[in-house]
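WARN retry 2 of 3 for item q-0093 after timeout on previous attempt; input resubmitted unchanged.
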Amino acid sequence: MDHLLRAMKTLPQIRLQVAGDGPQRADLEALTRTLNLDNVEFTGHLTGKDLEHRIAAARFTILPSLAYETLGKSILESYAWQRPVVASDLGSRRELVRQGETGLLYPPGDVEQLSGAISYLAQRPQQAQEMGAAGRQLVATHHSPAAHYQELMQLYEQVCSAAHKPGSIRGVASARNRLRVAFIGGRGVIAKYSGIEAYYEEVGKRLVELGYDVTVYCRTYFTPARKTHNGMRLVRLPTIRSKHLETVVHTLLSSIHAAFSSCNIVHYHALGPALFSFLPQLFGKKTAVTVQGLDWRRKKWGRLASRVLRLGELASARVPDATMVVSRTLQEYYRLNYGIETAYVPNGATLRQRIDSIYLKQWGLEPDNYILFAGRLSPEKNCHLLIEAYKKLTTPAKLVFAGGSSHTDAYAESLRRQANNHIVFTDWVAGDAFTELLTHAALFVLPSDLEGLSLALLDAMGAGTCVLTSDVPENREVVEGAGFTFRAGDVDDLRRMLDLLLSHQAMRAAAAHLAQDWVRDQYQWPRIAKEIAAVYEQLAGRDVVPQDRPAPRRFAEPSAPPSKRAA
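OK item q-0093 returned
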């Protein structure tokens, strides 16, 4: 509310009525007097006809709350009275407020943009009226009692139908000949390094539990010399340790080995390895590719490497018997660019609980008093942007980077040169130390300009940690309604959001709770493994009950300054 009052200081010609009561009312009224606001009136708590009369008499409604609401009932009430809404861009508001159509969103805590949004609607009564009408239509179509009743009945019917469906994936795999699956494309297992290796660990062992034979092709330098790990058979093959040849050579050798093996399905991971997905097919094998992201866009690759990876993208769409993608954004990309329907199977995460602080002291950290980045220190992750924004803050919280480089040693070294008592680099962290680092962080930040579906982001959300990410579509897809975003590449917007979140512990706690619930509902590894198994069963020509997933959430475009919006 204090942001709204400061915005009203710049709008003396517009009158504001504040309906509501609470412990901060006296402080807000004192601030009103301090700012000499003659255009602000506190009405107190209103109900029934009194509230209806006030809403009906208003031109639009303002909701500046920093509370992280799951459903903005006040927004729907305003729409019902055919009034548009100006609201802070938090929680479910982006789902309810359609930018420029039913109202305006502004970055939370940004007084200038809030003032601009209020002024914009006040100066355009006809457009405000049209927005209000669109809001009322939205309520009538999607939020009426009849629509609510219909959705409940559909849910009940799905539950009843599921109770009568045939057996689970486990039953299918164990009752018939066991499918033999090979993983190719990652470095291996045991020592977790990146998304693919973590994927191997988590999915592979669960496929074994579901009754599948799983073979993982590993690089000799990466995976210790052993024959099995968590029920998976390990095949260690050599490669050439270089940026451009390592994956190519190992994938080629692995593909030849798999082609002459007894496996039924060869599952490739990432765009580069997808180039070889035709080889096992020549020997009667089925192949699948999981696309973790558009790797050719990564800044670490030169022109030739990027072109090769573009060919890998083409191969992933045209060659394998099944193509899986880890995000809805990638699914839409393949639909628009290649005209194919891919299987959406996201990455997963483990739910973590806060554990006792043991390792933090050795890094000079205190619980709830540091900002965390975890992952590769590569240019597309924009760690330099995070450091630049952090240096503009006045905060006792430290900035921590947990990770190492991936063929980007020069970039990583340029970051490490900025280490001091407040900027800490830990290198790769795993096990209990990683759980401790995640669960005790005040805030997890992912400032990248390119993602597929970040496992580190899912890990932070699964740990019940508040997250702040760049607003690239792949990140928004995960954090909308359960985290915070800033404008990608905008260091000042990143600084603003860091300052806002570090200053509001209650906001962080509410968002962290929602984030963990979202991971629990959508991104747990057992569910992911069953969805992958369903793809395998279909490749084998077996009937299987599809794993139901809700339709993707509708996202509005990020808020733009009112001055940039069309009249």
